[in-house]
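Query structure, 368 tokens:
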């Protein structure tokens, strides 16, 4: 492939409900979209970083500059064998996986469209529907949380993830479990604890959680291994796994028993495939995480989730849980059984609502 244009666009989209994690609350998303073009054919990607450098080091303004000043010059008007080689063109850049992943995923979409293949088939996926869970943020009261869970369980979602932090953890999980005795339930701490909290976290063992996600610091695989040795509940790693090598090391050390794969966090499809394969080779199940994506990132997540080792429900859910109106058509919908059916159109499989994207755009820059 030979990409002759890269366009960066920032759109603003208010969330239907604010989303709160241990590191903060989001009410309006700033989303950086990446469009790549080759001979008139285009592909689209989404940079999945947050508005602030709190989940990882990335945020929208930094991602824009990384792409414009350091990635684009390594991609434009250069013959690249295939989308699988796009990520490697910027692997000399330290970190900034989400910025780089926005362009990498756009290149995969472009390549799939040119081949006339659905993206999920192009990456080697085999599922025709994917299993869905939801991630529910920290609420003002347990009553509100219980109501939200009730609604999502009734909608058919196959597992419920709640966010925890010190002061909103054991007693909240106890009440949720008391109200919903049989649901598949898990908790995500987004790095809010330290290894010295091990005795406290052990109290979660009595609630039959599927897993506890990323309890300890974002970059500390070693402490997670220490903690896993003291917990019955499986640890799922999110923030810690930025490369396939990290996955290998974490698995070797027994730092967790499940891996959440996010396209952005690992820099795109090529590395996500490697993480998936490493986990599969070790018998470690994976699932697809979410970053409050617009329809574009959501469509990429659906494609990723069709790989065979995505055996647990992910955080990929219906557009309407996030947006009054999504930028893709149709919006992502979840059936009563809690699944999303893949689409057979070429590329990521949805139409873009270009007029709506234009209306949401606050800045745009084209690099040739
Ligand atoms: O840790 O999985 C996370 C949202 C923002 C940042 C980090 C995370 C999340 C979610 C939401 O859990 C998943 C989603 O619904 O997109
Ligand atoms: Mg997480």
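Result returned for the query:
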């Amino acid at each position: 492939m030979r990409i002759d244009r890269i366009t960066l666009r920032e759109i603003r989209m208010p969330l239907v409900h604010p989303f709160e994690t241990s590191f903060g609350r989001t009410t309006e998303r700033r989303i950086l979209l990446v469009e790549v073009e080759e001979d008139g054919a285009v592909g689209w990607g989404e940079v999945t970083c947050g508005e602030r450098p709190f989940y990882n080091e990335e945020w929208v303004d930094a991602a824009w500059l990384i792409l414009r000043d350091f990635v684009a010059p390594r991609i434009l008007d250069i013959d690249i064998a295939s989308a699988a080689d796009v990520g490697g063109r910027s692997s000399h850049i330290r970190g900034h996986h989400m910025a780089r992943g926005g362009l990498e995923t756009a290149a995969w979409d472009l390549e799939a469209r040119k081949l006339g293949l659905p993206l999920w088939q192009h990456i080697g996926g085999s599922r025709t529907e994917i299993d869905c869970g939801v991630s529910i943020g920290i609420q003002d009261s347990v009553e509100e949380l219980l109501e939200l869970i009730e609604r999502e369980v009734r909608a058919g979602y196959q597992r419920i993830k709640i966010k925890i932090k010190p002061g909103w953890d054991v007693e909240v999980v106890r009440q949720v479990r008391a109200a919903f005795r049989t649901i598949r339930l898990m908790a995500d701490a987004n790095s809010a604890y330290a290894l010295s909290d091990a005795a406290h976290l052990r109290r979660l063992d009595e609630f039959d959680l599927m897993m506890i996600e990323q309890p300890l610091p974002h970059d500390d695989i070693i402490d997670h291994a220490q903690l896993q040795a003291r917990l019955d509940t499986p640890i799922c790693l999110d923030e810690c796994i930025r490369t396939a090598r990290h996955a290998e090391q974490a698995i070797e050390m027994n730092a967790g028993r499940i891996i959440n794969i996010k396209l952005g966090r690992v820099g795109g499809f090529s590395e996500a495939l490697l993480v998936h394969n490493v986990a599969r080779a070790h018998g470690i199940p994976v699932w697809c995480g979410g970053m409050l994506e617009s329809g574009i990132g959501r469509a990429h997540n659906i494609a990723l989730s069709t790989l065979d080792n995505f055996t647990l429900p992910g955080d990929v859910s219906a557009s309407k849980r996030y947006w009054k109106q999504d930028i893709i058509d149709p919006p992502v919908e979840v059936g009563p059984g809690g699944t999303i059916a893949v689409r057979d159109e070429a590329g990521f499989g949805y139409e873009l609502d270009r007029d709506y994207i234009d209306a949401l755009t606050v800045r745009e820059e084209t690099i040739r």
